Structure formats: structure tokens, C-alpha cells
């Protein structure tokens, strides 16, 4: 092989970036030979491309990337050369050493290539084989020859066709277009033509349409097109004004210069077409001159010149009565149709009165005169400092000057307003307005919370508007701004253009942007007359409330969860909907009407509202008439529509259009009544919001809530998250304390003229909850400072205010966790919270979340060797040095490393230094010293990636090196990969295996992941979805499912395919699926996940069939582990066995006479040798349980209690008829199964008005010995002597409760409501005697005594309590001294006391 390149090949010099590499310091005594390779490169799928012949050696190209960059400039491929393959596409070339001398290769922008015929491509085509437009002169000659040939050939005329031109529009954007000539080169086949258009348009074109939306499937259809086509990617056709006659020349293409030449041979002439002489005349009015810098912008058919400042001698320009002349070069902007002239409002006297602007084209001599006669000043005329002037043709403007009305609506959020300077630019088909400051509003103050400001903006008519750009300068005390929407009214066309935003322009909120680009909505471009009457209501067809817009639904959906009890208030009739026992319905009930309560049930994707008093009937719509019917009837199924005012409309699911409606008199409306005076909207109130222990949000808007800052101040502009949660402490009826859940022992208070969260639980923290029926909100009135409410200032800060009727004292509560659980029906389990804070919910570091490796997830033991082949054990607790080599693309994102060994995982390890900006720069190697890695066995792979943050997240990783500090042993991990969302495979994490003898010990596998979204309503999501694959050899790490084969990911009923590269995981064991949903609107229903290995026939199926996130035991979980089908069955059986352990069947038998049943809620306590169960709610008589002569069966779990020795059963004395006669309780163990059934006879009343007045009873459980039940524990009657002190005011009217605690458990909380010796209890100096019946507690150790703090005299001075009882024929007496106030209203509030036996107060 010759070392001197042939003259037939071009010798390329290295580019500047390569030539700046640091030179080696070695000195050579002899000249080393340079080995050169002669290579020819062709373009994928293009046999007409002649090929690029090059000489490759280590001087011309130092890296493979440098070769790719150079080829990208020479081979016309839309996205540059990113892949080099052998001619048949079998092998890809990844480094310079793989190139062979004298061979040919194919260039493409992705790995899949289109082979070509190299023999044909290597031959240069003859001149007549080249397709090019025929000139007019050649055409005349051709026609003459045609005529001659037709005579000679007896009528067989040879027709030479002029190549057809097509105007190509981008789908949905008429501004991006180009002209293409149909030729032999681009018309070989349809795919070749698509590639040609992709090169011209600079985006991948996959489909073609005619201008009216018909698909163009082949070349024959293409030839028949009428001169214009529309190029699209994967998206469907978007209608537009695709008029080929309007655009005779190509417009600006993406990524190209603004200067577009109309003809190929006009480039030399175009240098002169953009030169203009500009004469600016300032009027001779007083103070007409200006000190500002003046600019001008010219607009033409092709483009605009951009602002060009007119400079000259300082202080001499634009003075009163002067004419200033300038020469400017604008480039070729096409035919001129308007100019904009303005100034920057600088200097001492910026105001300017412009008389006229005159233009002369120095090439064509054309002259234009544009009269202005207007002030350009913020303190004159309309306050504008720029003017648009249209060109005049025959004395008439080519486009009219119009005054647009710009309606800017600031959001309703607290602190939504701004004091910054706001600027706007409106864009239409005929150009833009330029950046204009919104200076003069019709309101005295601009951009206030919830306010709509009207501005007038004068400009040359823009045609149809399609977008605006709006932002502010970030200056001022309140510079953050929440923009709701902008409506632009065009008086010329009588059209309104709506630009919704509903986002923050705030550096401290969301993405931190203070400038946003807003696109017009298709549905809001209609005439202004129609705008006034158009309303949009989206019906609900799912198992939840749905409305427009979606955030109203998210705010109110919690009210309609199954089991909630609701009231519906009509603001028209000022009454509640009520359902009477005879089935009649009206809207005249008061808030205490028992027939106005409705329990929520969900049925067939609709809601059923059952009467709380009569659960068998529910609200129904029968042919538009509101009535009560059996709750199983489909007429009871209703859809709920939430309106922007938070009211609900109830519509029949069976007969859409029929709604629950009442007249002004509160009666059910019928068809004979007119629309006026009807009530269709109802305010929804939820019962039990402020129960003790409830966790709530006090929302102030649809997005915000009252929150506590770390400094103790409160704001109504907080985010609706856990940080804004409050815990309710109920003091008495309607009076509560509100404690921060995150900052415990910090209470909301009003004190010393301030409202903050620095309260300690004293009386200043007591608030009366005032419910507002008309809005569904509440107000918090201070108990200590009557008439003072918790209020909000415009910036959201809290302050004490007087109720003046304003909305700044309204809070909309949202329950996160109810304080008292609702009855659970016939399936009894230990009590759990109804809802809960997302304690398990955690924030991911996006794609960098480390996943712990399971013990089984380690590779088999394998002896590793270094590059010399010697064996080495990796030392434990040792130090390593990490070197990272960056390619030609650096990053400033946060880089993280994981190291996997056969005994464990080390990581995440953050690779960072103090000077972060100097890390991971292009072609730089970064070293990180002394990383301590605990013993994880023999290394087999690493994972490295970044978090995608910073302005430059794209990163080209060349290599990672691990070097043992002591032994100097080195592990090399070559990468040569892009870690980027937009380049390469689209992943920002990669895995690299350890290599032995130049080969990886485990291969890199490409997993194909098929994610099935369910067919349920609203199954789709736009939330980020993450997946981690687990196998026998570790895990893949949690990866964002980013790059799908579908245009829109995770849509209802669709299947998305993703690719994930990882070091081989062996046999797959499970996957972890994570959905990062911020609200319920973004929840996702996943049906299943299927994983296939590339090139393998086997697949793993992971069934899911559930919503993510989901709730379990009151906690919301955002992730779920899925197991393959065969493993899943075994695991489910094992989990079922574990779950069933400790299950018991309990049967409760109610007496047989008519009044034996109860309406109360029944609970059970079970006591075993190890522990007690706590309260287990069995159900409520309101739900058709515990009826006379019935046996109700439940399943309960008593796992871990040990041998049972007693139960306690009773009720809460609620409902209209709580008295209950309990006959028997039967217990039977279900797992492990047992043939023994425990029968416990009770036969007593549990009622305050029957027998001994007890609502609880205890029953001992016998132990079976010698086929007989032996009961080791007897029921003991404890006699309590309660001594009230003799001090003045010692008595109380409160309800008193007592709990006895002994060495064998406790008696439970019992109400002391019936004294043996006194009718009026707990009076000063009085002794009251009570009886508590309980299974023997053995030795008494403690007494808990409490009261509920109600009644006019709730302070109580307790002297002592003496307990007397008889056990094993011995009379016993235990004294519990107290001698203090249980509550006195002065000291800190305590409603209970612990009294110990024969000792002072504990």
C-alpha cells in the first residue's frame, strides 16, 4: 500500500476543533510512516449520488466522530451522517480502524440503510441523463425539432416534457414551504421522493396529502396533483390555506438563512435589491424632536429585515423640522408591503413626532412615501413608541391599519398579579406587530388578581392570527405573574382569537420561564357575536366527576368518592334536596333535615345517591321527572358535571339531557315551566369534614391552599401538597384548632393583630367554623377575638380581617383523611383511615433513581481477568479512581455512576466537583479521586447517566475507566454513545459491561418493551412513566419510557413500544412500574407489559390491570411490582396463604323480637395472650345489618393475637333507634382451618335505656380440655366510687368516661351515665357510684378518666376514685387519688387523666 495518496483523491485537513488538541511531548528520532486508506462513500438509497472519494489516515481524522462531521457537510442527508455501513447494510462501522482500503461504504442518518447498486452509482451519468429545467430557448429548439421529427417519422412525434414543479407545504404551517422539480433522480420510487422532500424540508416526511386533505399514496397520484402537496410526518392532515398561486417563491426553511433568492441565477443581482435610501422627516411641531435611538423594520413577501437602527452624529438626528437620510441594506425581503418605525424611549426627551418616511430602492429606483403624522411617545396620543405604516398602491394602502383589542386576563390565584412591565408580540399570516409594551389599560391598576385588562394595539392588519409571544421584564416587587388567557379582537374581520395560557410567568414557579409562546385555539376563532352565547360543558362518562376545564374536576372530585355522605344545596330555593319516605323530592330542606343526606355509590361508570336514612331508595330521573326509586334501578344512575363556580349539575346517565331541576318554589320542574327561574346547579356539601383528627387542605383557589412557612407566617398561595395539610383538633361543636401536619405543634392563630401559624394550642388558636352554604366554603372566626376572621391579602399573606362580604375570607376544605371512618358494611376489617397522606409517595431524581438489588439478583460466580489475562480478586473496602472521557459533546448536567458486583451494588455515586462548569467539556477527560467502594464482589457492569438538567443536557460519552489506587489495576469501559433525549437511542443512561480479553463478559441486550394502556374511560395519561427490569443478574435501573413508536404515548387502548439497552439480566424475574402523576387527572390504567429480547422468540408477560397510582391501606402508592405470568401464579398463592393466616369468621345473632335490632355502628375488640386487636368495625344498622331475628356473618383477621381469652362487643349509640338485644356471638377460625366453633351466649340488652344502661359487654372465651369448655376467667362487677371535690365550681355537666387497666388487659372506654345513688351526677362534694362489668382484669394498675368538655360547666375538680370488686371470694378495694381539675379553662387543656393505684397523680 502506498503511503502517498493518489492525486485522484482529496486530502482533507483536520478541522479546527481537532487541530487544537494538545500535542504530544514525545520526540521521534525517525519519521513514522502514515498509513493511508482510499475510501469511497455513497448516500443511502440514492444511486444518482456520485460518491465522495477520500483519503483517511490518522493525520486527516483523529477520531471517528471527526469523520462523521466532515461527511455531514459533503453528503446531503437531512440530519447529518450518523452511521456508516457496508454496502449491504450488514455491518456498521464504529471506528477508523474498521475501514478497509479501496472499499466503498454507505452513509445514512440511522442504522437502517437502503442498499444501492454500486456499479451503477460509480459511473458518472452522461449530461443528457441529468434532469434539469429546460430553458425557454432550449424549449423553442426542442419544439422545432419535434415538428421536423414528426414529418420524418410519419406522425410519431417525440414529446420532450418540461419537468413538473410542485410547491410543497409543511403540514399545518404554510410559512414553511419549498419548490421541488420532479426528475429521474427523485422519481425512481415513492420512498426516494419522500427522502428528497425530507432533505429540502429538513424534517422526516412520511406521508403526502393534496391541499384538500386526500392522501397521495404513490408516484402516479403525485403526477396528477394540481401543483401543490402537503408534507406530513406521523401526524394526520391539518387543514390550512395551502394556495399554490399565492406562493410562487419558496419561503424561509427551518435552519436556513432569512435571505431567500427567487431564482438560481439571481444571486449576484440580489446584492443590490436589498439596498434602500431612507428619508425620515420630523415635524416642525414644538418638542417634536427626540433623543432616543430610532429604528426601522421593512416587511416583504419573503421575510423582514429585522430592526435596523438609524445611526448618525449624536444629537443631530431627528430634530424638529429636520430630514435625516440613511442608506440601509435589508437583504432580499421580497415585495415590500409595510414598515415599522419606532425608538427605544431613551434620553432626556424621548418623545418624537414623525411626519413622514420616504423609501427609495437603490437598485430598481422605485420610490415610496409613507405619511405618519403621529406622536411616538408614552406621554402622547395612545402611548405607543412605534408605528406601522403600510405601503400605498395608487393612493390606497395595500393592507389596512387596524386597532386590535387585547384582553389580558390574570388568573384567580392568590399572588397572581404582577407589577412588572409586560410585553406582547402578535403574529399572523401577514407578519407580526413586533414587541409592544402593554402600557395603558382601561383599569386604573394593571394585571391584578382575577382582573381582565383591555389594551389597544395599532398595527397593519396581520391576516389570520396564529400565535402570540408574551412576557415581562421580571422587575418590580411582585414580578411573578399567573396569566389565565388572552383574547385578541380583530375589528376588520369581526373575529376573536383566544390564546389560553393558565400558567405562571415566574422565575420561581413551574419551569421558571417569564416569556411564553401561546398558540391560538381552533375552537375559539369565531365571530364576536357568537362568542357571547357560546358555552362549553363536557359530559361525564367515567367513574368520577368530569368537567371543563379539567382542574375544576380535580378540585371537586374527592367529594364524590364512594361512601361519602353529601347534601345538595340550591342557591335559588335556599334549601337542600330531600327525598321523603314516599319517594317525593323537593329542594326545601334545611341543613339538619335527615332526609337531605345522601350516600355516594359508584355503579356502571355513574353515580348513585342513596338516601342516608333509607338506603334502599335513591335519587332518580324518570323521563325528566325527579323522584325516588329503588337504588338498583338504572334510572338512579347519574352523571355529575362540575361547573367553574364549583357547583354540580346532575344529569341522567340513561337519558342524557335530562337533569335534576327544581322551580323557584322548590318543587320538581316539568316540561311546562320555562327555562327562567329553574335551579339546575347545586352546591355540594360533605358531612364529617371537620371531625376530630381529620387531615384537610384549606384551598384558596383551584390550585392553591393555605400553607405554613418555616418562619411561622401563613400564605394562601401555597401549593396543594402535603406541606399545606392541616390536622383538625375538635374542641367542641363547631369549634376547632388547626395544626400544621408538617410542622407539628404549630397552630393557626389570631393574636396581637397578626394571623400566623405560631400558635401553641392556647385559646388564641380556637376558631369557629362558619359554613357558607351558597359557595361550599368555610370561614374561620377567632373565638378569642370575635368578629375577626382569617383573611388573605392580594399577595396571599394572611391577616386578621373583618367580614365585609369579600371573598378573601373563604376557604374551600378538601379532605385528605377523614377523622372518623365510615362503616364498612359486611366486610369487617380492622379500622383504617378513609384516605391518607401519600406517605409512600416519593420524588424521583427522574431517570437516576437507584434501585436496590435483590439478593437473588447477582450473576453467577465468574473469575475475572484483566487485559493481561491474570486473575485478580477485587479488594474489599478499597479506593478507586474514576476517569470519564467526553466526546465531542459536553454536558453540565449532574452525572451519576453505579457499579455492580456479584455481591451487591455501589451507588449512586455522584461525579462532581466544586467547579461544576469545568466538568465534562468536549474532548476532555475528568478524573475523580478516591471513591471508596465497599466489598460488592467481582465487578461485572457499571451504569452511568445524567439527570437531563442544565441548558446543555446532551452528552457524548467516549469511555469510563476504573483504576484501583493501590494495585493500579484498570478496568476499561468503552462507550462511544450519546446520552441524550434527542440524539442516539434517546436515553440518558447507559450500561457498560466489564471486558475480558477485549470481549464483554456479558453482552448488551436490547429489550423491546410493549406497554398496553387499558380501554377504560380516562385510562390515558401524560404523566412520566418509569420502568425497571429485574433479572437473575441485577436490574436495569429505573428508566423513563421516553421514546415510543407512537406519536402520542400512553393513549387509551393503544400499545406503545419502547427499547431499552442493558447488560444482559439473564432470566427476567419482575418489573417495577412507576407513574409520576401529580393529580388524579393524570392517573393511568395499565393493562399489561410484555418484554421481548431483540432477536429472541421468547417473551415475558407481566399482567397489571390496575390504576397507577393506587391506594392500599389508606396510603397512595405510585409504583407496583409485576411478576411474569408463571411466577405470578405461585406468588399469588403464597400471598393468599399469608393473607388468610389469622382469618376468623364471626357470626352475630340479634334477638328475635321486633325491637331487638339497632341503627348504631357495632364494633368488636378481641383479646389474646399476646395482644389485643383494637376496634374492628363490623358495620351499621343503617346498612340493613343487625335486624331482628338475623344472623350477620363477617370475616375478620386476628393474626398475632395468640390464644383468645375474651371479646368485647358494643355500639356507638348512634342512629334513631340504637338499642340492641344481642343473643349470641359465634367465632370460627378460617386459616388454618378448624372444625371447632366458639359459641358465646350473651342474651342481654346493649342500650342506655334498658337493663343496666351499658352499650358494651364483655364475654370470656373458654379453653377446651377433656372435650369440655373450661372458662378460666370470670366476669367481675367493678364498683366505681367517684368523689367530686368540695371546691367552689368543682361540679361538671360534661359526659364522663372511665377505662380500667389491669394486668389482664382493660375494660374499654365506658360512659359513666347512670349513677346508683344520684340522679344528678358529679356535683360539688358528691360521691357517685357506677358499675362496670368486665372479664377479670386481675390486679388493677391504672385508671383513665376523661370527659368531653361540653356543657356550660365543663370544668371538673376530681378528688379521687375508689374501685371496689370481689374476686375469688376476696373483697378488694383500690384507691386512685387525683385532687385536681381535670380541666379548669385556665391551664393547658387536658380532657383526660391517668390515675395510678394508691399514688399521687402520674
From TrEMBL:
<dbReference type="InterPro" id="IPR036392">
    <property type="entry name" value="PLAT/LH2_dom_sf"/>
</dbReference>
<feature type="domain" description="PLAT">
    <location>
        <begin position="1142"/>
        <end position="1260"/>
    </location>
</feature>
<keyword id="KW-0677">Repeat</keyword>
<feature type="domain" description="PLAT">
    <location>
        <begin position="274"/>
        <end position="390"/>
    </location>
</feature>
<keyword id="KW-0963">Cytoplasm</keyword>
<feature type="compositionally biased region" description="Low complexity">
    <location>
        <begin position="847"/>
        <end position="861"/>
    </location>
</feature>
<dbReference type="GO" id="GO:0032391">
    <property type="term" value="C:photoreceptor connecting cilium"/>
</dbReference>
<feature type="region of interest" description="Disordered">
    <location>
        <begin position="1"/>
        <end position="23"/>
    </location>
</feature>
<feature type="domain" description="Doublecortin">
    <location>
        <begin position="37"/>
        <end position="119"/>
    </location>
</feature>
<dbReference type="GO" id="GO:0005930">
    <property type="term" value="C:axoneme"/>
</dbReference>
<dbReference type="GO" id="GO:0030030">
    <property type="term" value="P:cell projection organization"/>
</dbReference>
<dbReference type="GO" id="GO:0035556">
    <property type="term" value="P:intracellular signal transduction"/>
</dbReference>
<dbReference type="InterPro" id="IPR036572">
    <property type="entry name" value="Doublecortin_dom_sf"/>
</dbReference>
<feature type="domain" description="PLAT">
    <location>
        <begin position="1276"/>
        <end position="1396"/>
    </location>
</feature>
<dbReference type="InterPro" id="IPR052970">
    <property type="entry name" value="Inner_ear_hair_cell_LOXHD"/>
</dbReference>
<dbReference type="GO" id="GO:0001750">
    <property type="term" value="C:photoreceptor outer segment"/>
</dbReference>
<feature type="domain" description="PLAT">
    <location>
        <begin position="878"/>
        <end position="993"/>
    </location>
</feature>
<keyword id="KW-0969">Cilium</keyword>
<comment type="subunit">
    <text>Interacts (via the doublecortin domains) with microtubules. Interacts with RP1L1. Interacts with MAK.</text>
</comment>
<dbReference type="GO" id="GO:0001917">
    <property type="term" value="C:photoreceptor inner segment"/>
</dbReference>
<keyword id="KW-0716">Sensory transduction</keyword>
<dbReference type="Pfam" id="PF03607">
    <property type="entry name" value="DCX"/>
</dbReference>
<keyword id="KW-0966">Cell projection</keyword>
<dbReference type="GO" id="GO:0009416">
    <property type="term" value="P:response to light stimulus"/>
</dbReference>
<feature type="region of interest" description="Disordered">
    <location>
        <begin position="821"/>
        <end position="876"/>
    </location>
</feature>
<protein>
    <recommendedName>
        <fullName>Oxygen-regulated protein 1</fullName>
    </recommendedName>
</protein>
<comment type="function">
    <text>Microtubule-associated protein regulating the stability and length of the microtubule-based axoneme of photoreceptors. Required for the differentiation of photoreceptor cells, it plays a role in the organization of the outer segment of rod and cone photoreceptors ensuring the correct orientation and higher-order stacking of outer segment disks along the photoreceptor axoneme.</text>
</comment>
<feature type="domain" description="Doublecortin">
    <location>
        <begin position="164"/>
        <end position="243"/>
    </location>
</feature>
<keyword id="KW-0970">Cilium biogenesis/degradation</keyword>
<dbReference type="InterPro" id="IPR001024">
    <property type="entry name" value="PLAT/LH2_dom"/>
</dbReference>
<dbReference type="Pfam" id="PF01477">
    <property type="entry name" value="PLAT"/>
</dbReference>
<dbReference type="InterPro" id="IPR008996">
    <property type="entry name" value="IL1/FGF"/>
</dbReference>
<feature type="domain" description="PLAT">
    <location>
        <begin position="402"/>
        <end position="519"/>
    </location>
</feature>
<keyword id="KW-0206">Cytoskeleton</keyword>
<dbReference type="InterPro" id="IPR003533">
    <property type="entry name" value="Doublecortin_dom"/>
</dbReference>
<feature type="domain" description="PLAT">
    <location>
        <begin position="1005"/>
        <end position="1122"/>
    </location>
</feature>
Amino acid at each position: 500500500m502506498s503511503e502517498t495518496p493518489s492525486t485522484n483523491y482529496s486530502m482533507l485537513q483536520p478541522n479546527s476543533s481537532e487541530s487544537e488538541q494538545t500535542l504530544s511531548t514525545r520526540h521521534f528520532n525517525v519519521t513514522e510512516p502514515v498509513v493511508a486508506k482510499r475510501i469511497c462513500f455513497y448516500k443511502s438509497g440514492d444511486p444518482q449520488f456520485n460518491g465522495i472519494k477520500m483519503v483517511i489516515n490518522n493525520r486527516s481524522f483523529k477520531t471517528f466522530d471527526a469523520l462523521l462531521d466532515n461527511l455531514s457537510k459533503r453528503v446531503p442527508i437531512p440530519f447529518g451522517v450518523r452511521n456508516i455501513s457496508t454496502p449491504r447494510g450488514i455491518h456498521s462501522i464504529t471506528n477508523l480502524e474498521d475501514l478497509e482500503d479501496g472499499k466503498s461504504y454507505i452513509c445514512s442518518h440511522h442504522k437502517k440503510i437502503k442498499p444501492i447498486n454500486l456499479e451503477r452509482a460509480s459511473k458518472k451519468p452522461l449530461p443528457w441523463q441529468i434532469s434539469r429545467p429546460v430553458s425557454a430557448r432550449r424549449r423553442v429548439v426542442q419544439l422545432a425539432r419535434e415538428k421536423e421529427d414528426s414529418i420524418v417519422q410519419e406522425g410519431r412525434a417525440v414529446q420532450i416534457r418540461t419537468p413538473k414543479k410542485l410547491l410543497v407545504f409543511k403540514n399545518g404551517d404554510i410559512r414553511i414551504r419549498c419548490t421541488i422539480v420532479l426528475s429521474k433522480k427523485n422519481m425512481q420510487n415513492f420512498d426516494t421522493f419522500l427522502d428528497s422532500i425530507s432533505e429540502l424540508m429538513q424534517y422526516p416526511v412520511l406521508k403526502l396529502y393534496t391541499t384538500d386533505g386526500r392522501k397521495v399514496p404513490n408516484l402516479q397520484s403525485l403526477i396528477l396533483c394540481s401543483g401543490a402537496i402537503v408534507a406530513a410526518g406521523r401526524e394526520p392532515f391539518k387543514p390550512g390555506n395551502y394556495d399554490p398561486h399565492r406562493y410562487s417563491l419558496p419561503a424561509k426553511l427551518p435552519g436556513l438563512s432569512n435571505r431567500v433568492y427567487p431564482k438560481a441565477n439571481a444571486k449576484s443581482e440580489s446584492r443590490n435589491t436589498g439596498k434602500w435610501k431612507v428619508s425620515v422627516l420630523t415635524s416642525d411641531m414644538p418638542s417634536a424632536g427626540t433623543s432616543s435611538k430610532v429604528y426601522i423594520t421593512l416587511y416583504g413577501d419573503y421575510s423582514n429585515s429585522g430592526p435596523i437602527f438609524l445611526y448618525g452624529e449624536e444629537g443631530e438626528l431627528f430634530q424638529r423640522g429636520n430630514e435625516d437620510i440613511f442608506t440601509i441594506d435589508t437583504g432580499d425581503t421580497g415585495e415590500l408591503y409595510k414598515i415599522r418605525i419606532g425608538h427605544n424611549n431613551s434620553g432626556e426627551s424621548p418623545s418624537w413626532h414623525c411626519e413622514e418616511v420616504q423609501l427609495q430602492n437603490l437598485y430598481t429606483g422605485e420610490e415610496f412615501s409613507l405619511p405618519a403624522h403621529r406622536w411616538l411617545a408614552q406621554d402622547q396620543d395612545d402611548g405607543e413608541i412605534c408605528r406601522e405604516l403600510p405601503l400605498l398602491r395608487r393612493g390606497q394602502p395595500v393592507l389596512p391599519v387596524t386597532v386590535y383589542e387585547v384582553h389580558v386576563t390574570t388568573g384567580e390565584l392568590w399572588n397572581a398579579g404582577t407589577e412588572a412591565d409586560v410585553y406582547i408580540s402578535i403574529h399572523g399570516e401577514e407578519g407580526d406587530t413586533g414587541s409592544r409594551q402593554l402600557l395603558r389599560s382601561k383599569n386604573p391598576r394593571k394585571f391584578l388578581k382575577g382582573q381582565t385588562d383591555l389594551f389597544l394595539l395599532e398595527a397593519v392588519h396581520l391576516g389570520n392570527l396564529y400565535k402570540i409571544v408574551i412576557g415581562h421584564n421580571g422587575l418590580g416587587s411582585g414580578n411573578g405573574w399567573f396569566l389565565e388567557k388572552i383574547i385578541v379582537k380583530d375589528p376588520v374581520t369581526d373575529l376573536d382569537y383566544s390564546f389560553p395560557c393558565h400558567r405562571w410567568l415566574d422565575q420561581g414557579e413551574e419551569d421558571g420561564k417569564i416569556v411564553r409562546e401561546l398558540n391560538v385555539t381552533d375552537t375559539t376563532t369565531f365571530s364576536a357575536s357568537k362568542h357571547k352565547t357560546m358555552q362549553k360543558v363536557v359530559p361525564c362518562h367515567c367513574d368520577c366527576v368530569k368537567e371543563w376545564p379539567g382542574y375544576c374536576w380535580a378540585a371537586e372530585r374527592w367529594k364524590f368518592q364512594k361512601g361519602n355522605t353529601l347534601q345538595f344545596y340550591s342557591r335559588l330555593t335556599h334549601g337542600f334536596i330531600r327525598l321523603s319516605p314516599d319517594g317525593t323530592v323537593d329542594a326545601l330542606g334545611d341543613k339538619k333535615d335527615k332526609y337531605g343526606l345522601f350516600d355516594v355509590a359508584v355503579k356502571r361508570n355513574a353515580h348513585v345517591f342513596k338516601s342516608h336514612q333509607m338506603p334502599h331508595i335513591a335519587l332518580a330521573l324518570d323521563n325528566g321527572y325527579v323522584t325516588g326509586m329503588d337504588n338498583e334501578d338504572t334510572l338512579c344512575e347519574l352523571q355529575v358535571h362540575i361547573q367553574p363556580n364549583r357547583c354540580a349539575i346532575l344529569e341522567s346517565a340513561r337519558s342524557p339531557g335530562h337533569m335534576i331541576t327544581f322551580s323557584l318554589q322548590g318543587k320538581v320542574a316539568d316540561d311546562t315551566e320555562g327555562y327562567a327561574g329553574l335551579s339546575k346547579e347545586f352546591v355540594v356539601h360533605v358531612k364529617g369534614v371537620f371531625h376530630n383528627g381529620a387531615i384537610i387542605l384549606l384551598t384558596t383557589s383551584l390550585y392553591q391552599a393555605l400553607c405554613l412557612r418555616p418562619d411561622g407566617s401563613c400564605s394562601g398561595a401555597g401549593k396543594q401538597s402535603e406541606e399545606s395539610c392541616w390536622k383538625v383538633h375538635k374542641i367542641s361543636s363547631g369549634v376547632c384548632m388547626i395544626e400544621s401536619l408538617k410542622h407539628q405543634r404549630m397552630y393557626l392563630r389570631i393574636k396581637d393583630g397578626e394571623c400566623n401559624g405560631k400558635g401553641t394550642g392556647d385559646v388564641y388558636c380556637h376558631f369557629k367554623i362558619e359554613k357558607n352554604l351558597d359557595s361550599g366554603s368555610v370561614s374561620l372566626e377567632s373565638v378569642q377575638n370575635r368578629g375577626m376572621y382569617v383573611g388573605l391579602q392580594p399577595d396571599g399573606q394572611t391577616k386578621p380581617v373583618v367580614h365585609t362580604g369579600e371573598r378573601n375570607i373563604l376557604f374551600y376544605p378538601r379532605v385528605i383523611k377523614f377523622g372518623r371512618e365510615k362503616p364498612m358494611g359486611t366486610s369487617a376489617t380492622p379500622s383504617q383511615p378513609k384516605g391518607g397522606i401519600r406517605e409512600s409517595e416519593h420524588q424521583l431524581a427522574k431517570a437516576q433513581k437507584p434501585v436496590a438489588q435483590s439478593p437473588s439478583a447477582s450473576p453467577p460466580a465468574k473469575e475475572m481477568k484483566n487485559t493481561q489475562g491474570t486473575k485478580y480478586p477485587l479488594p474489599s473496602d478499597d479506593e478507586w479512581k474514576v476517569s470519564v472521557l467526553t466526546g465531542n459533546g459536553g454536558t453540565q448536567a449532574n452525572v451519576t455512576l453505579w457499579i455492580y458486583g456479584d455481591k451487591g451494588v455501589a451507588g449512586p455515586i455522584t461525579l462532581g466537583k466544586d467547579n461544576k462548569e469545568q466538568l465534562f467539556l468536549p474532548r476532555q477527560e475528568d478524573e475523580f479521586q478516591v471513591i471508596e467502594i465497599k466489598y460488592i464482589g467481582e465487578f461485572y457492569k457499571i451504569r452511568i447517566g445524567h439527570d437531563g438538567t442544565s441548558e446543555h443536557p446532551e452528552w457524548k460519552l467516549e469511555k469510563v475507566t476504573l483504576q484501583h489506587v493501590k494495585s493500579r489495576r484498570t478496568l476499561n469501559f468503552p462507550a462511544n454513545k450519546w446520552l441524550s433525549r434527542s440524539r442516539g437511542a434517546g436515553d440518558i443512561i447507559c450500561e457498560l459491561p466489564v471486558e475480558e480479553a477485549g470481549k464483554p463478559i456479558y453482552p448488551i441486550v436490547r429489550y423491546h418493551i410493549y406497554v398496553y394502556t387499558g380501554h377504560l374511560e380516562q385510562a390515558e395519561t401524560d404523566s412520566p412513566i418509569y420502568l425497571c427490569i429485574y433479572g437473575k443478574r441485577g436490574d436495569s435501573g429505573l428508566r423513563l419510557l421516553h421514546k415510543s413508536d407512537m406519536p402520542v404515548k400512553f393513549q387509551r387502548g393503544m400499545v406503545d413500544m419502547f427499547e431499552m439497552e442493558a447488560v444482559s439480566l439473564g432470566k427476567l424475574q419482575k418489573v417495577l412500574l412507576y407513574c409520576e402523576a401529580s393529580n388524579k387527572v393524570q392517573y393511568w390504567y395499565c393493562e399489561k407489559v410484555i418484554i421481548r429480547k431483540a432477536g429472541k422468540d421468547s417473551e415475558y408477560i407481566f399482567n397489571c390491570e390496575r390504576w397507577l397510582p393506587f391506594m392500599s391501606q389508606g396510603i397512595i402508592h405510585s409504583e407496583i411490582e409485576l411478576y411474569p405470568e408463571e411466577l405470578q401464579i405461585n406468588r399469588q398463592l403464597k400471598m393468599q396463604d399469608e393473607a388468610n393466616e389469622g382469618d376468623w369468621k364471626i357470626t352475630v345473632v340479634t334477638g328475635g323480637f321486633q325491637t331487638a335490632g339497632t341503627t348504631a355502628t357495632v364494633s368488636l375488640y378481641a383479646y389474646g395472650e399476646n395482644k389485643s386487636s383494637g376496634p374492628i368495625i363490623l358495620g351499621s344498622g343503617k346498612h340493613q345489618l343487625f335486624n331482628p331475628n338475623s344472623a350477620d356473618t363477617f370475616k375478620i383477621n386476628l393474626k398475632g393475637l395468640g390464644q383468645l381469652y375474651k371479646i368485647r362487643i358494643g355500639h356507638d349509640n348512634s342512629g334513631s333507634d340504637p338499642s340492641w338485644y344481642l343473643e349470641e356471638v359465634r367465632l370460627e377460625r378460617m386459616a388454618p382451618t378448624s372444625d371447632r366453633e366458639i359459641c358465646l351466649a350473651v342474651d342481654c340488652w346493649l342500650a342506655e335505656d334498658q337493663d343496666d344502661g351499658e352499650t358494651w359487654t364483655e364475654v370470656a372465651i373458654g379453653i377446651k380440655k377433656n372435650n369440655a369448655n373450661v372458662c378460666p376467667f370470670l366476669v367481675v362487677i367493678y364498683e366505681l366510687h367517684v368523689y367530686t371535690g368540695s371546691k367552689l365550681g368543682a361540679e361538671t355537666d360534661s359526659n364522663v368516661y372511665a377505662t380500667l387497666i389491669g394486668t389482664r388487659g382493660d375494660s374499654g372506654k365506658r360512659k359513666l351515665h347512670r349513677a346508683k345513688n344520684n340522679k344528678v351526677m358529679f356535683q360539688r362534694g358528691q360521691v357517685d357510684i357506677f358499675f362496670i362489668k368486665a372479664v377479670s382484669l386481675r390486679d388493677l394498675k391504672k385508671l383513665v378518666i376523661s370527659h368531653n368538655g361540653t356543657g356550660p360547666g365543663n370544668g371538673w375538680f376530681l378528688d379521687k376514685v375508689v374501685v371496689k370488686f370481689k374476686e375469688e371470694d376476696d373483697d378488694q378495694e383500690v384507691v386512685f387519688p387525683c385532687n385536681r381539675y381535670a380541666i379548669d379553662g385556665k391551664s393547658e387543656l387536658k380532657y383526660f387523666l391517668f390515675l395510678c393505684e394508691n399514688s399521687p397523680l402520674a
